[in-house]
């Protein structure tokens, strides 16, 4: 299960994740002034129904939606510059899905997504995926032109300075993790982490890579260095939802 979770995140997501991310993005995307609207997102007056398979699916759906929001202007520019948008076969109601899946496609360097046999296909996702992938060369070229235009080595460098500073601050914050006491005791968590090479310290100021400490106010919360996020998520403790990242 742990290896499957890692593989999905690296090579794309299940269809349901894209649909949920698109619904979230539909409700949070930045509305442009009417005289500046070039990309239309359809009607978002009705709150979407979100159904998540598990905690992991919920987390990556929100991550994908907020990443698309962060790069909304860039993604719209790529769609327009490549002439991939507008498209008569993709209605306005699927524009959010188009933007969300474009972000994920460029994040995978325009490589094909790995499809899993146990996955239940969603027609809208497969339709948008085929459409984007058929224009991957034009989309990649449009992205390259955007980077040249902004003199940026990566898309992160295109973000406004205020957002970049916010991300730098957020990435430096320690990670807070809840112990799911319905599934495991704190003592068993400490024992398991020790086997994995982690050392318990007294405070955040004592952090030295593979270390953690108890929260001073909540005895079922652990705190880890921010640099350990990916490694933590690959532990069985997280795959089994015995630890939950906040």
TrEMBL record:
- Any one GO BP annotation for this protein: methylation
Question: What is the protein named?
Answer: NSUN7 methyltransferase
One Pfam family per UniProt: NSUN5_fdxn-like
User: Which keywords annotate this record?
Assistant: Methyltransferase, Transferase
- Is Zinc-finger there in the keyword field? no
InterPro entries according to UniProt: NSUN5_7_fdxn-like, NSUN7
GO MF annotation terms: methyltransferase activity
Residue ranges annotated for the NOL1/NOP2/NSUN 5/7 ferredoxin-like domain, each copy included: 176-246
């Amino acid at each position: 299960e742990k290896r499957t979770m890692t593989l999905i995140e690296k090579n794309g997501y299940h269809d349901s994740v894209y649909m949920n991310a698109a619904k979230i993005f539909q409700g949070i995307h930045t509305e442009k002034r009417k005289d500046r609207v070039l990309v239309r997102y359809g009607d978002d007056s009705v709150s979407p129904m979100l159904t998540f398979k598990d905690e992991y699916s919920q987390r990556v759906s929100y991550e994908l939606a907020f990443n698309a929001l962060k790069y909304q202007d860039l993604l719209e520019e790529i769609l327009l510059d490549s002439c991939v948008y507008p498209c008569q076969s993709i209605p306005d109601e699927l524009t959010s899905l188009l933007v969300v899946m474009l972000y994920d496609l460029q994040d995978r360097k325009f490589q094909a997504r790995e499809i899993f046999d146990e996955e239940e296909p969603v027609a809208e996702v497969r339709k948008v995926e085929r459409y984007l992938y058929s224009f991957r060369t034009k989309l990649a070229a449009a992205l390259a032109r955007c980077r040249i235009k902004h003199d940026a080595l990566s898309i992160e460098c295109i973000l406004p300075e205020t957002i970049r500073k916010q991300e730098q601050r957020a990435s430096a914050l320690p990670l807070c993790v809840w112990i799911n006491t319905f599934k495991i005791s704190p003592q068993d968590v400490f024992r398991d982490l020790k086997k994995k090479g982690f050392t318990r310290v007294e405070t955040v100021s004592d952090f030295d890579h593979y270390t953690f400490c108890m929260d001073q106010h909540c005895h079922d919360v652990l705190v880890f260095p921010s640099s350990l996020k990916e490694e933590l998520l690959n532990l069985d403790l997280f795959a089994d939802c015995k630890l939950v990242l906040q």
